[in-house]
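Q: What does the assembled structure look like for these inputs?
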Amino acid sequence: MIMTIQESLSSEATEYCEDVARSLSAVNETDRAEMLGELRSHLVELDAELSGDGIADQLGSPQMYARELMKSIGIEVLEESTGASARLPLRRRVPLWSSQKKILTGLLIFVILSVVVGWTSIVGFKWVENRGVASMDDYQPASMQVVPNLVNEPVEMASTILIEKYLNLCEPEDSMTFDSGSGLVVLSQDIPAGTVVDIEKTCVKITYGSPG
Amino acid sequence: MDNSQVLKGVLDVAVLSVVSESDVYGYELVKRLRDLGLSEIAEASVYGTLRRLYNAGEMSSYLVASDGGPHRKYYSLTSQGFKSLNIGLSDWASFVSAMDKVIAVAQPKGA
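A:
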């Protein structure tokens, strides 16, 4: 059975790809899409071999992976650390994440989160109290999103599925609106599912018709 | 010895060499390089190098269906890629030759 990359990826792998995509802002769209496609393929293969280790243990953090990619294609990257070990995944180095470090880091994160959550709750409560109901206009989605699969979905659902990802349907030429239960389905989409795109520059074009 | 800095300088030749042997897809290339001894090589460095060599016209690519998984993108060398490989191999041979002479004069303590 042939599977699409998106179908084959675990949720951890999908999240890793999205994090890498966010860190590749300095890369042009074509290179970024190609390199993310390669990463997804790699993760599909890697998933079959992972034995308890996380993806970040194998490849390094998404930010580190993106930094290494950019350096390799010749983009100047500011180093956050000058140590050689900072550029290599954990699996191929002396383990940085020893048990002690994990515990200490966990505690530190817990304390920071507690402070942040407490502070946010107080400030947020006062803000809502002053302003009334918070508006969704204040929410800023990530600028990069993964295009969802639309093929075989009812055509009237295409726009809804895209909106959930903060994406838009390209305006149909005849500006046709669809009644629920029209029986028409999406036959193809111009941007393949799984492609990471900039939501501000992208609309997805579909063709539709009767199923089968 | 930390080989990561040395690798950066010779990764192009390493990648071109393996791809010249037979067409490979990214994951296979990473494994092949590690099997050949470059165990510290980072995946991102390999994929970035592939992309840069592809953009420079030294590689071409094509998709091949895979049983039970997504299509794989195979890379092969173009004639320009083979020329770069020949130059890289020549440069490497000169470098190794020079380094052999340099380290021959070394006087390690305790030897």
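Helices of chain A lie at 5-8, 11-23, 29-47, 55-59, 62-72, 99-131, 155-164.
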